[in-house]
Specification:
The relative contact order is 0.04. Strand 1 (349-351) and strand 2 (357-358) form a beta hairpin. Among the domains are: 3-125, Serine Threonine Protein Phosphatase 5, Tetratricopeptide repeat (Alpha Horseshoe), CATH 1.25.40.10; 261-326, Serine Threonine Protein Phosphatase 5, Tetratricopeptide repeat. Helix 11 packs antiparallel against helix 12. It has a three-stranded antiparallel beta sheet, with no helix packed on it. The protein has helices spanning 3-23, 33-49, 53-68, 72-83, 90-107, 110-122, 127-140, 144-154, 157-173, 177-190, 195-207, 211-224, 231-239, 252-272, 278-290, 294-307, 312-324, 330-344, and strands spanning 349-351, 357-358, 374-376. It is mainly alpha-helical. The chain is built from 18 helices and three strands. Bound molecules: zinc ion. The site of zinc ion has 9 residues, from loops.
């Protein structure tokens, strides 16, 4: 039996035991015979693989498989059993430490992940890969400023700008609005197409009633952001709720109506200055509906339908508008309302890279990790 055959046989035993563990009525148990056998198989395998490059690769891949399955404990055991082997080539030790760091990151044990990456770096692991892992680690643990710094080291500007925005939003929530604004300005300098930075600047201006500034930012943002995702600026503005009226600022209803009017006028002015665009036209109609201007909303939706007759979302709003003008029997009306209500809950956003559908927009796809891949779902078949 060759070394590699022994390794493969050992890996099969190990995976088999684990499956038996999971299927056992007692559930996985570190003290169960299966788990003890698996641990001794790990130790046996680590003896076999020592200093054989091919075998080390397979052994580390086995650990990755456990990590992928969410069995962090077993993945960590695999790395640790290799790391402690006396006489192990430092480059293999560096690889094992690097993977150990990734295991801990996946398991949410951030301090141990950091320590493993530090050791891996000291032993000569690829610094760029480590920087990338550190960026993910800081992003996962909410240390957005540090995540932005790591992405800056990698020269990946879209992600750097994204985490600058996340940090700015944290600052804004803590009442440090001026620092947040300055950071957002910096983020669009780092990456002018940073849709989330333009959106955050726009939302901050709208929230404080600075409509001239909001209009300027919207025009600039619509120019700088790639055309496929500029609708996200309008989505961000649409999600913003009318601010609660302050004491002595008149009655709530009129200040909400004023907010809706200002928001709608700002959007329409910016959209009308551009070439006709299906999604911008559709969002314009949504803002008109928010301020109760049904007739004009119908015109905007009709223009959207000319641009793309099978655009379901515009058809849905038109159907809803025309329903109000029809004399329908109560039964028919309630059936129609049921379908319209359900169609409005359709997941409207889809990742252009992997097809993942979501109810909410995203900057990085939760499944394939693509950046800025969110698109509006154009067809219900998408
Ligand atoms: Zn995706």
């Amino acid at each position: 039996m060759t070394l590699l055959d022994r390794l493969k046989a050992g890996a099969r035993t190990l995976l088999g035991h684990r499956r038996a563990d999971i299927l056992s009525p007692m559930g996985p148990d570190a003290e169960s015979p299966g788990a003890r056998d698996a641990l001794s198989a790990i130790q046996e395998l680590s003896r076999v693989v020592r200093n054989d490059p091919d075998a080390v690769e397979i052994y580390l891949a086995l650990g990755n498989l456990y990590r992928l399955r969410g069995d962090i404990e077993r993945a960590v055991q695999i790395r640790s059993s290799l790391i402690v082997r006396p006489g192990l080539d430092p480059q293999f030790k560096a690889r094992a430490l690097f993977e150990l760091g990734r295991d801990y990151r996946r398991g949410g044990v951030m301090d141990r992940a950091l320590a493993a990456f530090d050791e891996a770096r000291a032993l000569g692991a690829d610094p760029e890969q480590i920087t990338f892992e550190l960026a993910l680690l800081h992003a996962d643990s909410g240390a957005f400023e540090e995540a932005a710094a790591q992405y800056a080291r990698l020269g990946y500007r879209p992600a750097q700008a994204h985490y600058m925005v996340r940090h700015a939003e944290d600052l804004d929530r803590c009442g440090r609005a001026d620092e947040a604004k300055a950071l957002l300005t910096k983020a669009v300098k780092v990456y002018p197409g940073a849709v989330e930075a333009w959106r955050a600047r726009l939302v901050m201006a709208a929230r404080t009633g600075e409509w001239r500034r909001a209009g300027k930012l919207l025009r600039e943002g619509l120019e700088r952001v790639p055309a496929s995702i500029r609708f996200l600026l309008l989505e961000g503005l649409l999600e913003l709720e009318a601010p609660a009226p302050r004491n002595g600022a008149g009655n709530g209803a009129s200040s909400t109506a004023d907010f809706e009017e200002q928001r709608c006028a700002t959007v329409l002015a910016a959209v009308e200055a551009l070439e006709p665009d299906l999604l911008l036209q559709y969002y314009g109609a949504l803002f008109l509906l928010r301020c109760g201007n049904r007739e004009e909303a119908g015109n905007w939706l009709a223009k959207a339908m000319v641009l793309r007759p099978d655009f379901w979302a515009a058809r849905l709003e038109l159907l809803s508008l025309s329903m109000e003008q029809q004399h329908l029997s109560p039964v028919f009306r309630s059936q129609l309302e049921y379908f319209i209500e359900h169609a409005r809950k359709v997941k409207r956003f889809v990742c252009g890279a992997c097809g993942l559908r979501r109810e909410h927009t995203f900057s990085v796809c939760p499944r394939c990790r693509s950046w800025h891949s969110a698109t509006f779902r154009m067809s219900l078949q998408d």
